[in-house]
Amino acid sequence: MQTIFLQAAPGGGVLPQVLMFGAIILVFYFFMIRPQQKKARDQKKFREELVKGMNVVTIGGLHGKLLAVEDNTVMIEVDKGVRLVFDKSSISMEATAKVN
Fold this sequence. Notes:
The protein is an alpha+beta fold. The chain has two domains: 13-49; 51-100, SH3 type barrels (Roll), CATH 2.30.30. Helices cover 35% and strands 28% of the residues. It has a five-stranded antiparallel beta sheet with strand order 4-3-2-1-5, covered by helices on one side. A hairpin with a 3-residue loop joins strand 2 and strand 3 (73-79).
């Protein structure tokens, strides 16, 4: 019966492992965390700039025209005479097409 002994490569210490772990953290930061923070910052800026008369889309996909903008709520007209009140955080984006 033959026995094989394996040895660790000389010079392979903790430093390469720490550098690889640090590189993985940097990749996660630049490709996942940082873009998400930028998107959240842009969304917050958009919600602060809401003005009466804008055509918007809610998170649920409801299209309408802003009739009133208050501190935490907005009133949206979705059809002639149909007015709904939403929380400001439910506004997703500006609609590009005109809402009838």
